[in-house]
UniProtKB/TrEMBL annotation:
Identification of the protein by name: Flagellar basal-body rod protein FlgG
UniProt main location, coarse: other
NCBIfam families xref list: FlgEFG_subfam, flgG_G_neg
Compartments in which it is found: Bacterial flagellum basal body
Record-linked PANTHER family: FLAGELLAR BASAL-BODY ROD PROTEIN FLGG, FLAGELLAR PROTEIN
SUPFAM superfamilies assigned to the protein according to its UniProt record, in alphabetical order: Flagellar hook protein flgE
Span of domain Flagellar basal body rod protein N-terminal: 4-33
Domain Flagellar hook protein FlgE/F/G-like D1: 96-159
Length: 261
């Protein structure tokens, strides 16, 4: 019976949905994490009688026809780009993007990656790097004798020194924007890669071209809504159970058929 295969696709879809929800809940405390959502579409239909065909009996047009669906398939795991709330940390290298945009960093391979995790650190040679040691682009080196580091909303980095009234400009932090941010490829460690779907990045000064501004001393929390995720988990669990019941029902029908003498 087709119902066995159809219900099996339904169970697989709900299992994938639970896996996505599980990943969201696991990253509730991940800085700059955006929740994901599994999306599905129905499979092809078997056309027993096509709508609009002419019947052989009296020549009338069939208004609806007989179309039997063959199940469901996953189409995407899309990212919800809603900004998480900003939490004050008072760290001089903690930066949150208030609005759209990504920080650009350089991977060991030399490729560029993009992140909204602004929990930056200072490397041994004074560079601004991520927690994994990937340098921020453009590269900015912090003097070891600087007493205070200040970063304004436009991304300008200043260093204050003893016996100097005026700060020294060290560099300019830029942000990258994409035409289709949902087309970025997630590679873990809060990093994304450019793809054909995302388009090439537009790198500008914060606060321009529709991108956000930088908030020093803040970090962006995860955008995961725990209540929503638990609700979706319950719905996915019930959907899985109902598809399992269909398989049980079909099995009982087949059992009854084999017992007919």
């Amino acid at each position: 019976m087709r119902a066995l295969q159809i219900a099996a696709t339904g169970m697989s879809a709900q299992q994938m949905r639970v896996e996505v929800i599980s990943n969201n809940l696991a990253n509730m405390s991940t800085t700059g994490y955006n929740a994901r959502r599994a999306e599905f579409a129905d499979l092809m239909y078997q056309q027993a009688t096509r709508p609009g065909t002419i019947t052989a009996n009296d020549g009338t047009i069939v208004p609806a026809g007989v179309q039997i669906g063959l199940g469901v398939r996953p189409t995407a795991v899309s990212i919800n780009l809603a900004q998480g709330s900003l939490t004050q940390t008072s760290g001089d290298l903690d930066m949150a993007i208030d609005g759209y945009g990504f920080f650009e960093v350089t991977l060991p391979s030399g490729a560029s990656a993009y992140t909204r995790d602004g929990g930056f650190k200072r490397s041994a040679d004074g560079q601004i790097v991520t927690s994994d040691g990937y340098p921020l682009v453009p590269g900015i080196t912090l003097p070891s004798d600087a007493t205070t580091i200040s970063i304004n909303a436009a991304g300008e980095v200043y260093a204050y020194f003893n016996n100097q009234v005026q700060p020294q400009l060290l560099g300019q932090i830029t942000l990258a924007g994409f035409t289709n941010e949902k087309g970025l490829e997630a590679i873990g460690s809060n990093l994304f890669l450019e793809t054909e779907a995302s388009g090439a990045p537009t790198v500008v000064v914060p606060g321009t071209s529709g991108l956000g501004v930088i908030k020093q001393g803040y970090l962006e929390e995860s955008s995961v809504d725990a209540v929503r995720e638990i609700t979706e988990l319950i719905k996915a669990q019930r959907g899985y159970e109902m598809n399992a019941k269909v398989i049980t029902a079909v099995d009982e029908m087949l059992q009854a058929t084999t017992q007919v003498r």
